[in-house]
Structures are given as C-alpha cells and as structure tokens.
Amino acid sequence: MKQPWYHRFRQTLAREARWLTPGLGVKRWLLVILLGTTLVGLGFGVLLVDIYRSALDTWWLPIVAVLSLSFLERPLRALIFGGVGLGLILLGTWGLNRTLLRPFVRPGRPILDAVSAYRRRDRGPRVVVIGGGTGLSALLRGLKAYSNNITAIVTVADDGGSSGELRRSMGVLPPGDIRNCLAALSDDEELLTQLFQYRFGSAAGVGGHSLGNLLITALAEITGSFEQGVAESGRVLAIRGQVLPSTLHDVRLVADVVDESEQSVLVKGESEIPKVRGRIRRVWLEPNNPLAYPPALQAILAAELIVIGPGSLFTSILPNLLVHDLTAAILSSRAVKLYVCNVANEPGETDGFRCEDYVRVLQQHVGENLFDLVLCNNQFSARLPDGVEWVKFDPQMSGIYVADLADEQQGWRHDSAKLARTIMDLFYERTGPLNRQSGEE
Fold this sequence. Notes:
By secondary structure, the chain is of the alpha/beta class. It has helices at 5-16, 27-54, 61-67, 74-101, 111-122, 133-143, 161-170, 176-185, 191-197, 211-223, 226-237, 294-302, 313-321, 324-332, 355-366, 416-429, and strands at residues 127-131, 150-154, 242-245, 252-259, 264-268, 278-286, 305-308, 336-340, 373-377, 400-403. A 7-stranded parallel β-sheet has the order 3-2-1-7-8-9-10, with helices on both faces. Strands 5-4-6 form a 3-stranded antiparallel β-sheet, with helices on one face.
C-alpha cells in the first residue's frame, strides 16, 4: 500500500536532516554560505528600499507593495522571506553536492552514507600492521572499513615465484607481498584490483608474472626507486593508507633447521625453508643488520595501534622483526600492541605449534615481549584440509584474548570482518579486555 504523501515527506525530511549530524563537517560551511547570502541580501535590501522610496509617486507603487508584502507586519515578512531564502540555499547546496559528488559515489549508495563513512574513516586511529603473505592482506581488507590512516609494513625477503624471478632478473625488491597489500587496501576491489592481481600464464611470454608485479617493477624503473614505484602504484589503486617495505636492503632469509634425521641443516632463501621437513630452530637475515626504511619507523612511532600478524611465523613475521631498528621503534612506541596468532599451523613451518609456541619463538628471536595482548581464535568447527591443524591455546596464558576469528568457508584463514571488528573493539576498550577470557579450548 502506498504511503500518504505527508509520511513520505516526513521520511525524506528526516533522511536529509542527517546532513546536520555532528562530525560531517557540513554545518560550518552552511553557516558560511548563510552569512555570505545574508550580506548579499542586505545589499539588495538597501537597493530595494531606495527603489521603493523612489516609487512613491509612480504608477507601479502597488506592484512593488505586493511584491514586498508590505500589507503584512514586518516580523512576519522577515520570517517569510528568510524561510524561503534558507530553503532555496539548502536546496541549491543539496543539488550542487549531488552533482559534484555523483562521479565519486557507487551506484545505489546514498551520498550521505558515502560522506559519513569517509569522515568516520578519516578520523580513524593511526594503525600500523606488520607482516606479509595472505594473512596480512586479509587483515587490511577488514581494517580499511575503520580507518584511512593505515600503514602496512611488509617483508622484502620473498625470493620465490614471480617476485623471486623479478628480484633475480631485474634487481628489484620482491613486489609480491606489497602487491597483495596494495590490492587489499584499494578503495574499489573490483575490476581494477582484479586486473592488478591478474597472473599471466606461462605460455604468455612473461613467465607467469602477475600484472601488479610488472607494474610495480616498471614504476620503480620509471621513478628511479622501488619505494616511489610502490607509492605510485598505491595512487593508481586509490588505496586507503600506505604500504611500505620494512627495509630497502636486498636481504635474504636464512634458517637453521633440524631435519627428520636430527641433523642441523642451513637453508637459504624464504621459499626453500618450508621445503625442508623438520623443526626450525632459528632464522636470521643476511646481511644481518639491515637499516629500516625511515618512513616505516616514523609510522610506527606515530601509531596509536600496532598489529603484528597474522602470517607465516618464520617467513613473513620474523623477517620484519629481525630488522632491529623496527623492533626498537615498536618497543619505544606508546601504541597499543597486538599480536594476531594464526588460525591454523602451516605445514613444514609450524607443525604442532600452540599459541604460546608462536609467542615463545617471537620472544626468542627479538629478545623481549613486544605485545600488550595476544589474539587467538577459539572457533574450531570448520573443516580443514588434510595435513592442516588448528592452533590451540592455553586458557591460562597471560595476556591472551580469544574469539571467533575463523572464516566459515576457509577455516584455516581469518575472516577479515571478524578479525578487524575484534581488533578495533579491543583498541577502543584499551586495557579492559586484558582480564577477559572467552571460549575454551
């Protein structure tokens, strides 16, 4: 049944009145427009008074009297003219905003919702996320709904696949993890981002490279530096935030692995480490003391929230923390510091690990406890692939917060929305959740 016109009018009025919601930054400019219009109106008023007085002895005095509503009391006339003028100002401002903003708003999404969401994200906390791989991309995809002030600091120790080939043949830092983070932070993860992530087949003549890797490499050549090429790629994708390498040095990850025969094996190369079945005792970088990328240090020191992980413990997380300047900056930062433990163990790297084992390995390599809180999943109902196992936890472990973080379709991965929502809730609660436990093993 069709609603009466006055109901529809009231709903429209209530919807449009949301433009006056605090924090949108609209009311101040409306006041400026109103002040300017008042001054213009005052000038016209002076002119009209002069015309009215000069019309006293002319035949068109009655016309002027009717148009100026002189037959009404002056307060009522002021109210009528003021109300009509204010209505026209609001109508013109509303129409102008719709016209100017329409190219930047997705179809079917109200302009007010787009403006409100942008303002909310623009005031969001300064977040630094450290890691690499698909885990970091999943986290960024969720966090960008809460803040535009996100910095992803990514490892450059990757030497496998397309990234490794470009690293060896072109002499650039590996772009793969950086490409994934750029795509995750993109404002529109549809056609352009899919194009950025597109990987050519081996028969295409470009060796199975992804278009994004080639674009970053090309921009690095054009701009003269890898970091500038990454920044320009971010502008192409209109990302929310920035993606920075942890270091600009050409580092290689080296691991001391105890194999199945209990022999110590030295494995060089991030892509080679998971191939050696055994227990990883220690990893380090060569050269062993690379300098951190200065903007990454600045982002850490200015951050309000630092999130480390999720991602492969030895090949994505530790290569960042082994850049000693970065670790020192994290320790010096006053930000809230969280470590996000993986949902499932990675075969060949963390077989049989529990949440406390992840934290222990990090402390052994870094030498100190970096975190205010450790975040771990407690939802184990999804089905995992053969050979993959859940990361369990000790409920008595200090500084742990557990929640349902697993993706319902791919249970070995984090759900972007769940993880981001939990992290932001913890951030806004500050120290409240430190004594909170939820769920059991």
